[in-house]
Every structure is written in C-alpha cells, then in structure tokens.
Design brief:
With 328 residues, the chain is α+β, with helices and mostly antiparallel strands. It is built from 4 helices and 14 strands.
C-alpha cells in the first residue's frame, strides 16, 4: 500500500469515528436506555372471607375472568343454618316487641285505675273527716280513711313505675325496638356470610398461581391464588441515578420484551420512584460504617403501556429493555 492510500484510509477511519461519536453523543442526549427492567401489574391476592371446605373450583390456571365471575365456592350449609337461626331470633324479637307493647297498654290502664281509686279515696277521706268533726263518726273512722288514702297514693306510684319500666322495653329507634334492630342486623350479617360462600372476581383479569382443589379447608383472609388485573401492566425500569436527569413523567417510551424479540411496545413514563431500590429493601444498606465503597444506585421508573398494548396479557416478572425518548 502506497503512502497516499494509507493517508486516505486513515482519513476515512477518523471520519467514521467522528461520525459515530457524533451520532452516539446525539442519541445519548435524546434517549435513555436500560435492560434492568421487568414487567409488573396489579395483582389481587384472592382469599375467602369465610372459613370452610371448598366444594367447587370454577376456574383454571391462566383463565381469563370477568369482574363478578364465580371463582370458587365454600360449603354453604353451616351458613344457611346460621341464617335460619338469625331469622328465627328476629321473629322472636318482633313477637316480644308486640308483647311489650301490650304490657304498656295494660300498665297504662292500671295507672288510670289507680288514679281513679286515689280520687275516690281523697273524696272519701274528706267526707269522713267532715263527719268526724261533726261527731257523727269516731276518730278511728278518720284514721282508717287516711290509711286508705295513703294506700291509694302508693298504688298510683307503683302503677306509674311499672308503666315506665314497660315503656323502656318498647323504646323505639326509628320503626323498631333495639332488640329488633339487633336481630335484623344479625340476619343481614348471616345473609352476607351466605353470599360470601361464593367467591367472585373483584376485577377482570387472569388467574395465576392456582393450586386450589375441591375439598380444601380454607381459612378466612388467607391468600389462595392470584388475579392479575387486565389493563394494569407496566414495566419497572431501574435507571442509574446518573441517568435520571432529563427523564420526566409523560415522555414517550418504547419497551422490548425478551420473550417477544423484535416487537416494540409503545409506552409512557408514568412516575419516577421516590427512592432507590436499596432504600426500600428488607435490609437497607448501612452506609455509615468504617468501610464504604460508593456504588451508583438505581431508581425505579414506572413505564406504563399505552394504546392497544395496554390491554394485552403480559407475563409478570418478564425481562424487558426500555428506551425513554427525552425529546420528540
């Protein structure tokens, strides 16, 4: 190779390097890319609100379900019996309430009778006293009349006390007595428990991690399997803290999944995490120690799928590559 050819080759190499460097610098100023990214979604941990044996499992692993669709059923027999008992107690409380109302009416009549007897005793005592003053009757007659008057007064007080006690039992809150209200609440709770023997999907999505089979005795509020909510997928892209400048919510992004190579999903930056992954770990790093090495931390950035991609079914935990466009 002659000297001129070598010079020409060197010029071409330098020009290519300069062009490549300029392209890389320009691209670095326009995008941020990371392969430290994983698919995530809203995952509902499905559990029964009741304890009891499972009689039927109506879904299978990976099945797509709609909100309100039955997932599995608990044996309803004990809760049907509990509902019958609650309804019987309600009927008893209502009957007791009617009896109490009858007692109030009876005691009210007793008060009226006692007051009439008191009125007669007062009149009789006055007549007797007048006759004693005129010496037509003995002093003993006057004493007897006064004693009858005191007995009549006591009878009125006793009848009024019984009436007050009877009214306490029929004190109403709205249209019912407290006992009836309590019995109604017990019936409502029993009806709710019976309804909860049928466990339904709280939102549309896909069944995951299902191992439940009929005959399993489940405990209330213990997670049994998962429901991955439809339309809730996003990617947690863990950018280095030095890469965060320029990234803002609302910027366009592109996602490539390792399990679907060559396909680019459209997305948008939704939110930038308020802490590094290490800060929220179970055992956060203790940097205030004698031996310390500075390590560049990563901050999770949530990238939400958009458009038609937002309703697709992805695999939670799948690896991804994310590119955020800072401009355009």
């Amino acid at each position: 190779m002659n000297k001129l050819a070598r010079i020409s080759l060197a010029v071409v190499v330098v020009a290519a390097a300069a062009t490549g460097g300029a392209w890389y610098w320009q691209r670095a100023a326009q995008v941020r890319t990371t392969e430290n990214a994983y698919v995530n979604a809203d995952v509902v941990q499905v559990a029964s609100q009741l304890s009891g044996p499972v009689t039927a499992v109506l879904v299978h692993e990976g099945q797509q379900v709609e909100a309100g669709q039955t997932l599995f059923e608990i044996d309803p027999a004990p809760y049907q019996v509990a509902l019958q008992q609650a309804r019987a107690k309600l009927a008893e409380a209502e009957q007791s309430g009617r009896q109490d109302a009858t007692d109030v009416n009876a005691n009210d009549a007793s008060v009226a009778q006692a007051r009439a007897d008191l009125s007669n005793a007062v009149a009789s005592a006055k007549r007797t006293h007048s006759l004693v003053q005129q010496h037509f009757l003995s002093q003993q007659a006057d004493d007897d009349a006064q004693a009858k008057l005191r007995v009549a007064e006591a009878a009125v007080s006793q009848a009024q006390a019984k009436l007050a006690g009877a009214r306490v039992h029929v004190a109403h809150v709205g249209d019912a007595t407290p006992a009836v209200l309590a019995a109604r609440a017990a019936v409502a709770q029993a009806e709710l428990d019976l309804a909860h023997t049928r466990v339904v999907a709280s939102k549309p999505g896909w069944i995951a991690n299902l191992s439940l089979v009929p005959g399993t005795a489940v405990v209330a509020d213990m997670p049994l399997f998962a429901l991955v909510a439809r339309g809730s997928f996003w990617v947690d892209a863990n950018f280095k803290e030095t890469e965060l400048p320029g990234i803002q919510p609302g910027q366009r992004a592109e996602i490539e999944l390792d399990m679907q190579p060559g396909h680019v999903f459209q997305a948008v930056v939704e939110v930038i995490g308020n802490g590094t992954g290490a800060a929220f770990s179970l055992l956060p790093a203790q940097n205030a120690t004698g031996n310390w090495v500075k390590v560049t931390q990563r901050v999770p950035v949530r990238i939400r799928f958009t458009g038609a991609d937002a309703v697709q079914a992805f695999r939670v935990g799948a690896s991804a590559q994310v590119t955020v466009r800072l401009k355009g």
